Amino acid sequence: MLFLLTHPRELERPTNTGQWILEALPEQAERIIWQRKHPNPRLLDALSAGRTALVYPTGEGSSTACATVDHFILLDGTWQEAHKMYRLSPYLRQAPWVALSPDQTSRYTLRRNQRPQGLCTYECALGVVQASGDEVIYRRLAAQTYRLGGDESLV
Questions:
Q1: What is the spatial distance between Cα 104 and Cα 147, in angstroms, rounded to a whole number?
Q2: In the predicted structure, residue 114 carries a pLDDT above the cut 70
Q3: Is the pLDDT of residue 140 over 80?
């Protein structure tokens, strides 16, 4: 299960790659609108139950392996918005986390990537699904990578 913790401004952007995840994986992905003062109870329950991890390039503790995670939290927004959500949400800073180590630059060309080796939300979903070993779900996502701005899918 992928939880897309979406910054409210991201809902208005036609370049939102989180929407593509929801379209490709309607049963495996859920969008949660980030609210600073009112964290989503379903997300908090998943974190307290365990086997849920944040996908983020930094973490307060040690990284966990994707194969040991059932639920991934993806911060869906610009890099600045994602950092703000992380910084202002203590439950995210306390969550186990997984880090992706991309071996290539982002293929997403609809927005300017603001960090070296930074990936868009869709590419992060591809990375964690591939690392978790779910080949069927990975192929469903990879079949739509043409949307990132390239003309070929990964399958």
A1: 17
A2: no
A3: yes
- 3-state secondary structure labels for all residues of the chain: CEEEEECHHHHHCCCCHHHHHHHHCCCCEEEEECCCCCCCHHHHHHHHHCCEEEECCCCCCCECCHHHCCEEEEEECCHHHHHHHHHCCHHHHCCCEECCCCCCCCCCCCCCCCCCCCCCHHHHHHHHHHHHCCHHHHHHHHCCHHHHCCCCCCC
Residue type at position 119: L
With a CB cutoff of 8 Å and minimum separation 6, the contacts of 25 are: 2, 125, 137, 140, 141
> Contact at 8 Å (CB) between 126 and 145?
yes
pTM here is 0.84
Q: What pLDDT does 2 receive?
A: 96
pLDDT tens digit string along 92-104? Answer: 988 988 887 655 6
